[in-house]
Design a protein that fits this description.
The chain is an alpha/beta fold and 397 residues long. Helix content is 36%, strand content 14%. It has eleven helices and ten strands. A six-stranded mixed sheet has the order 3-2-1-4-5-6, with helices on both faces. A four-stranded mixed sheet has the order 7-10-8-9. Strand 5, helix 8 and strand 6 form a beta-alpha-beta unit. The longest helix has 22 residues. The protein is elongated and about 90 Å long.
Length: 397
């Protein structure tokens, strides 16, 4: 059964919403076929097959089917296209996959058959979308949805996007460069074939207890990772539904591992050592000395500058890189990253003579191993190696 209106809503009733849609059409005006579908983005319409990959699992808000999606399902059914439902859990599966068929001789009978078909879809949503296996494998569910459609079709992914299984475990890649993630998956031939499909990503970054909520920077990165995966797969268009979902997680679902969020350290102590990395908004764009988050980097470095000036400290900046590229290139890049931090500190009032800057390339002793046994670059560790180490020295007494 559906939960009551007072409980955490899992899904809006397809049948109820369909009734509202039919009433609106009968009364004339714009109707949901134009105004509702426009809210989905990408020009989605019922002129092709539709696949919905839905996550109803632990650590995520109970998902909701928006009225516009109900209208999209209705239009797809009326056009005789296939509707597919994919369950997102640790072992994703297609739980419904059938085209709408009718031999109705008039509009009233046709509407009745459409209602019956969508009621069958609704029953599958209520019974079979709920997680059955521990953990979350969004990538496989995305691939199953792609296989259930064809060019010109629509794919809707409804999930926080925090996969907890290999090869895309967000416990490792939540702060990775999206381009690195795509390159890693492409090398393993794991990018879903989305050629010609229109894709809607909904609920990315929304979480429920005990999964901590990602901050804005991480949420944007989660969205960017899945959007770049869809684009790499050849999607004709990728839209993102940013409406928040603050429902509680479904009860009694199999367990899902918590994805730890990188700690943000933007305060500094005298006479110590600190990483300037994505963890405090001073990470670098792959292959460059440009900050990934310019405003965040300046805020963090302003705190560092205050600490240096207050205690009359000296600071050694040591640049580090990930492992891709040549030794000479990485040494040059690491020096450029250290110099980029130095320039900001000088602009913030730190005496130039109090700062030294050097680069160690991919050889800094405290770095993490960012290569797989076959030499493939690991996206998460690679991002954590793109940093500058700030070593603060107190004045001699």
């Amino acid at each position: 059964m559906y939960p009551s209106a007072r409980s955490s809503a899992t899904f809006l009733s397809v049948a109820a919403l369909l009734g509202l849609s039919l009433t609106a059409c009968a009364e004339g005006g714009e109707g949901p076929s134009t105004s509702k579908l426009a809210s989905l983005g990408c020009g989605m319409s019922g002129d092709g097959p539709l696949a919905l990959a839905v996550g109803s699992h632990a650590n995520a808000p109970a998902p909701a089917i928006e009225p516009a999606l109900v209208e999209l399902m209705k239009q797809s059914a009326q056009a005789g296209h296939r509707i597919s439902l994919v369950r997102i859990d640790g072992a994703p599966a297609v739980v419904f996959d059938a085209p709408f068929k009718s031999d109705a001789g008039n509009d009233v009978a046709l509407e009745k058959d459409v209602n019956s078909y969508l009621t069958a879809v609704e029953q599958k949503i209520k019974g079979d979308i709920r997680a059955k296996a521990p953990e979350v494998d969004v990538l496989t569910a995305f691939t199953l949805a792609a296989r259930s459609t064809e060019p010109g079709g629509n794919i809707v992914l409804i999930d926080p996007g925090l996969q907890t299984t290999t090869p895309l475990d967000f416990r490792e890649v939540i702060d990775a460069e999206p381009a690195d993630v795509v390159a890693y998956l492409r090398k393993q031939e794991l990018i879903p074939d989305l050629t010609g499909r229109k894709v809607l990503l909904s609920g990315l970054g929304d979480t429920a207890s005990p999964q901590p909520e990602p901050d804005l920077r991480l949420r944007r990165n989660i969205v960017a990772i899945w959007k770049e995966i869809a684009q790499a797969g050849g999607a004709a268009c990728v839209a993102v539904d940013g409406k928040p979902n603050d429902q509680a997680a479904p009860t009694g679902a199999p367990p899902v591992s918590v994805v730890p969020l990188p700690s943000v350290r933007d305060t500094f102590s005298a006479c110590g050592e600190a990483d300037l990395s994505d963890g405090n908004h001073v990470g670098f764009v792959r292959g460059t000395s440009k900050f990934r988050d310019v405003a965040g980097a300046r805020k963090t470095l302003a705190n560092l500058a205050d600490t240096i000036r207050k205690d009359d400290l000296r600071v050694k900046l040591i640049g580090s890189t990930s492992s891709e590229g040549t030794r000479e290139g990485n040494l040059r890049l690491s020096r450029e990253r250290a110099q980029a931090v130095k320039r900001e500190l000088v602009l913030l009032g730190v005496p130039r003579g109090s700062i030294t800057a050097e680069g160690h390339g991919a050889q800094w002793p405290g770095r993490v191993d960012d290569l797989a046994p076959d030499g493939t670059l690991l996206p998460g560790p690679a991002a954590r190696n793109r940093k500058v180490i700030a070593r603060l020295t107190c004045p001699a007494t």
